[in-house]
Amino acid sequence: AQTVTQSQPEMSVQEAETVTLSCTYDTSESDYYLFWYKQPPSRQMILVIRQEAYKQQNATENRFSVNFQKAAKSFSLKISDSQLGDAAMYFCAYRTWNSGNTPLVFGKGTRLSVIA
Amino acid sequence: GAVVSQHPSWVICKSGTSVKIECRSLDFQATTMFWYRQFPKQSLMLMATSNEGSKATYEQGVEKDKFLINHASLTLSTLTVTSAHPEDSSFYICSARGLSNQPQHFGDGTRLSIL
User: Fold this and answer.
1) Neighbour tally for B78: CB within 10 Å
2) B28-85 residue pLDDT tens
3) Which of A109, B15, B19, B78 is the most exposed place for a label (fewest CB within 10 A)?
4) Model confidence over A47-98: pLDDT tens digits?
């Protein structure tokens, strides 16, 4: 079974600075998806960024980018120019390529605080 | 984008009552729906997976008779917490997906408080 590990329970960053959240995963599959979700205090799950494992190019979405290292099974999230609204829980998630009924597998999350 | 509507967003009820939570996909057909439970400051814990017209598949440790899941149509799934007790108080989130290669979309969650 696949597992997702987020080794940083809490992180903090100064406003306008850059922060990197770590995520590693374990799988025997060669094709899969990886995601970062944001959960603010409202507890809504918001998709931040998605990466297909077959793509070598790292995904980017505005201030959010990932460093996908397939051989190392690492998928870190970089937030540039951090804003107060970025404060939230961030979950890394894995999904099998041919998903069928297979759900997302979540890490335990990293709580990000943004300091004004 | 795809929208999943979940309601109620917050419910408070007495111990022993049953509570139904609805999850609707508003602009796509949800082939598969997932129900999660989340305790404070913890990750999402998968409770069950359901396909339209089929019985739900429950995760180990989740009581089928306590948490009844019905996925009667391609746009609606319900979770009924039967004879709820204080230990069932939690945040419940539904999620829906269309085709297998499509993203999983989340409802806004239901905060359940059992007195």
Assistant:
1) 18
2) 999 899 999 999 989 999 999 998 888 899 999 999 999 999 988 999 999 999 999 9
3) B15
4) 999 999 999 899 999 999 999 999 999 999 999 999 999 999 999 999 988 7
Tell me the CB-side half-sphere exposure of residue B6, using CA atoms within 13 A.
28
CA distance B1 to A71: 33
Cβ–Cβ below 8 Å for A107 and B43? yes
Q: Choose among B43, B49, B91: nearest Cβ to A106.
A: B43
Residue A97 DSSP symbol: S
Q: How far apart are CA B51 and CA B97, in angstroms?
A: 10
> Which residue of A lies nearest to B94 if distances are taken between CA atoms?
A45
Closest Cα to residue B21, out of B110, B115, B114, B113?
Answer: B110
